[in-house]
Design a protein that fits this description.
This protein has about 130 residues and is mostly helical. About 65% of the residues lie in helices and about 0% in strands.
């Protein structure tokens, strides 16, 4: 299941025209943590991706995807309208109301403790269609 998530992250990282070193490191770490070989992650970073399958994801996976997108968006400390719009569109494809982005933008930080992630997941669950 890690490949769709990595492709979403790569697309987001490429929006501003360049994939910053911190963005590459973040995406690489997620790939490696999910058993994706480094060579495959490097190859994914080289281009944008279309037709990403987001079907059959659990609520936990949907939250994880959205959380990682927002963390990546905030990692370079520059927010672009295109990035926010992209994350909102992905949130909608995952089954969230796009207004979930307000809570995500307010509460997501680059590093978060497990209890913080759980509290945010509980908070954003109301935006997820059943």
């Amino acid at each position: 299941m890690a490949l769709p998530q990595l492709k979403l992250l790569v697309n987001l990282a490429r929006i501003d025209g360049e994939v910053a070193e911190r963005e590459k490191k973040y995406i690489t770490n997620i790939g490696l943590a999910n058993g994706v070989p480094l060579a495959d992650v490097v190859q994914l970073l080289e281009k944008s991706h279309d037709n990403i399958d987001l079907g059959n994801l659990t609520a936990e996976q949907k939250f994880s995807y959205l959380l990682s997108l927002v963390q990546l968006m905030k990692i370079d400390e520059r927010l672009y309208q295109e990035e926010i719009r992209y994350c909102s569109q992905v949130a909608a494809k995952l089954g969230y109301d796009q207004t979930v982005m307000f809570d995500m933008m307010l509460h997501v930080r680059e590093t978060m403790e497990e209890h913080e992630k759980k509290a945010l997941r509980d908070l954003t669950e109301k935006y997820l269609s059943k």
